[in-house]
Structures are given as C-alpha cells and as structure tokens.
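Predict the 3D structure for this chain.
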Amino acid sequence: MQKADDSPLTIDEIAARLKCARGWVQLSIDAGCPTNADGRVSIRDFMLFQLTNISQIRALAGLPKIEIKKEEGSLKPNVKAILTTQLEWLQIRSTRGAVKTAAKLVCDRINSID
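Done. Predicted structure below.
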C-alpha cells in the first residue's frame, strides 16, 4: 500500500489512484469534501472526509441511514460503512449487470461480518 499523498489531485486522478468510480469521488465532493481553488483534493483529505462524513454521503446518494457502531479509538466501523455505502451506490448507479451482481455479493459478505 502506498503512503497517502498530500498533493492535490483532480477527480479523475483520485479515481484512477484509488481504483474507484469517478462518480464516487464526485459524490464525496458534492457532499462537502473540501477542495482547493482549482477543485482538487488530496487523497488524505478525501479519505478523512469519508471517514467522518459517511452519513452525508449516504444521504446525498439517496441511501438509507445506517447505524455505525462506535468503538473507542477505532475507525473500523467507519471503514465498513464507507465500503458498504460504495457497494450499495454501485448497485444503484452501475449500468453493468456484472458490476451490480458483484457489488451485491461483496456487500452481503461485508454485512455478514461483525
């Protein structure tokens, strides 16, 4: 795993670096992820925003609220919420049946883990 980069990147650069959909990055920015004057954001700031604002991202995506179990000093529940949200979003937004099916299978598997 690479060290998080602090240099500001475009939406396309973040999507390519994180191997995620461009729309997912845009959704996070639309939910309030701070950008610089050029509309760029560092991967570190992007990830931190998601960790602390996943409820806003879910609301903007039209997904139902989820309960995030707080664990003292642990971000694990937030990471699970981000992954679940991204997979649920893919099920709604993807135009490819194989992607929807795969996203559902992985989401179900993640949700079965406590």
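DSSP finds five helices and no strands in the chain.
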